[in-house]
Specification:
Number of domains: 2
Shape: globular
Radius of gyration: 21 Å
Number of strands: 17
CATH class of the largest domain: Alpha Beta
Mean pLDDT: 96
Largest sheet: 9 strands, mixed
Oligomer: single chain
Low-confidence stretches: none
CATH topology of the largest domain: TIM Barrel
Helix content: 25-40%
CATH superfamily of the largest domain: Aldolase class I
Strand content: 15-25%
Distance between the termini: 25 Å
Length: 377
Amino acid sequence: MPPLSLYIHIPWCIKKCPYCDFNSHKKPDVLPEQQYIDKLLADFRQDLIHVQNREINTIFIGGGTPSLFSAKQLGRLLLEISKLVTFRDDIEITMEVNPASMEHGKFQDYKDIGINRISLGVQSFNDKHLKVLGRVHDASAAKTAINEIVKTNFNSFNIDLMHGLPNQTIPEAMDDLQQALSFDVPHLSWYQLTIEPNTFFHYKPPTLPKEDALYEIETSGKEYLLSKGFSQYEVSAFSKSQTHQCQHNLNYWLFGDYLGIGAGAHGKITTAKTMAISRYWKTKHPKLYLVCNHTFIDGDKGLSNKDIILEFMLNALRLNGGFSLRQFSQYTNIPNQEILPILQSLENEELLCINNDNVYCSAVGAKYLNEVLEYFM
């Protein structure tokens, strides 16, 4: 059976950012914290059938802006969940944080309830770009929050940074990286801004850097991070050491199972008896979620072997280290013989490398990952 994680969704933000396509909503004047936590617990109890005697390896509290919720209520949630399932001894518990929602001492409160990893949504240290992105914090607030995180001494923390921002120059993108590294950050999520459907930027597209500038930003940025001791272990994830890699995201990328609770949360589950794999998703709008009584599930879908192979490759080939054939057969219940002809064809075209049991993209394959994935469609 694959390892098991838990994702918890908090759907409210101070305001909706123009690039965001996540299930997030402008917060009401009074947040229904206690009511929502009660619903999360009821939601989790319904999902207990999927645990199947496994430990919870990682928890990720995302959003939205989870740091709008108090440590008291989130602590109650984690405590009650821990009474229902077993947490792995070295469980990683991550919470996403917006610098604008933090007050002095709040990080220590979160650490005291068991959160041991923070993911801080900085996006840029340039106030001009933060304003265009619709962020409610400025560079000063971001730096204050990072200093508080460092002082609180979490096991690890991550800074989210975007590049390829509207009218961003190459020096500005590099300055963002340099400022982030000045805080001795152990993990960076550094990704290019993309215009997603059903966002404000989709309806009113901003002026983005040209392709040659985007290529220069990405190439120079990666070279800089590598020169500073970072390793790139996924398309947009960089860590100072293996111990600082995000274990929750690694479970996603390596096709592990995960429960999803909260408005619009998704889960992926393997059934022990049959090894059938399915996905489910919860009631999306917070107002509807808060009045759910009998079930929180809005829909589910069993995956065919073709679905499973494609989804596995979509995730695992994002990793620089790729995946093992043993892991593929163990987590999918599909014999390796079913994918070996495609893998060997890609190896012949020098898009994949097969080293004993290990399969990963070549440098060319990583550059043309979408073309590699088409072989599995």
